[in-house]
Design goal:
The protein is α/β, with parallel strands linked by helices and about 200 residues long. The protein is about 25% helix and about 30% strand. Strands 6, 7, 8, 9, 10 and 11 form a six-stranded parallel beta sheet that branches. A five-stranded mixed beta sheet has the order 1-3-4-5-2. A hairpin with a 4-residue loop joins strand 3 and strand 4.
Length: about 200
């Protein structure tokens, strides 16, 4: 069933226009009586019936609203050190598909790429894997800043080649909030691992 994000209340009648409306009306060729899912981007889904196709959009009737079933219990922030080329775009896409609520680009000692406004992904694919929340891409920060903030909010999973704990053990200790720190191409420096 097609899914679309809207920035309006999921109640009564909703007009789906713009790019999504064109996609629904012209590409998918949805007809009156068919069903689609609308998401508010904050964790709610609405089952909707198409009432009519109006030009390059559709008028929908909200039939039933429910919490999104596509969101994990643990809220994960992927703290990815800046990497060369468009690899950060791929990391962002995969993190969204796997259920991350935030992607946080970081600068570390061995990063080849340095923080500038263009290094962070500019947009997210908003309809990945049945998600009901639009993940956020945070402003780039230093590894030290991210570790300090992560320690205040939850658990830290720090991927380091000389780590002593298995991934299974680390995940067992994870609570409702987890920050996953992934290094750059050259890995984390020993002093960064000590800081973590």
């Amino acid at each position: 069933m097609p899914r679309f994000f809207v920035d309006q209340p999921l109640e009564g009648q909703v007009f789906l226009g713009g790019e999504d409306g064109r996609h629904l009306a012209k590409s998918l060729r949805v007809r009156p009586g068919e069903e689609v899912t609308l998401c508010d981007g904050r964790g709610a889904d609405a089952l909707c019936k198409v009432l009519s196709i109006q030009g390059e959009g559709a008028l929908l009737q909200v039939e039933k609203t429910s919490p999104s079933q596509g969101e994990p219990q643990t809220k994960v922030t992927v703290c990815q050190c800046l990497c060369k080329g468009d690899k950060l775009e791929t990391v962002t896409q995969k993190a969204v598909e796997l259920g991350a609520v935030e992607i946080w680009p970081l600068e570390s000692v061995r990063c080849v790429v340095k923080v500038d406004g263009k290094s962070a992904p500019k947009k997210l694919a908003r309809m990945q894997s049945g998600r009901g929340v639009i993940p956020q891409v945070l402003a780039p920060a230093s590894l030290k800043q991210a570790l300090e903030e992560a320690a205040r909010q939850g658990e830290i999973l720090f991927f380091y080649e000389r780590g002593e704990e298995s991934l299974r053990q680390a995940l067992r200790a994870a609570g409702e909030r987890l920050f996953v720190c992934v290094g750059p191409e050259g890995g984390f420096a020993p002093e960064e691992a000590a800081l973590a």
